[in-house]
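For the sake of transparency, this paper describes our internal protein records without simplification. The tokens are whole numbers drawn from a learned vocabulary of local backbone shapes. One such record is reproduced below, unchanged from the form in which we store it.

. . .
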Amino acid sequence: MRLLGTNYILGPEQIVECDRLGAHGCNGGTQESAYNYVKRAGGQEQESDYPYTSGADGSTSACSSDSSKYVLTVTDYANINGETDMANYVLATGPVSIDVDASTWSTYTGGIMSKCPTQTNHAVQAVGVDTSSGGYWKVRNSWGEDWGESGFIRLAYGQNTCGLTYDVSVVTPAKV
């Protein structure tokens, strides 16, 4: 958002349904695979144009992306190490992509989660951070606005909660 002066919410459903080389629909994939898909496809649609529908029952439909609705693409990506560097990036530049262990998230309804396993199995986006004592990461999930805190979860800061530091990446975006 800060790099390009835009305010797009990109549609994860496009990745879930269309990235057939390195992703496995609702059964996982990697951020790197998603970035490479977006580069190959030439862009990604906004969530308002390609809404998330796979989470309800874990099944995916056929890819139905529309290149005329692509708003952003990925030109490159890089990794970030450690919560301090992650926080600095989020505060100065914007969201980072993270892998987490979401195996205990299905019953989350609110508050700051501070204990969970760390066998990462789900890619999400850290969109905000409070680094004060008792601080937290604000994380955007792909499970829709009916889940958690309107589609977000707060994870305790400074504890590698849910393994959030194990695979952190950022992209160099470009407008389509």
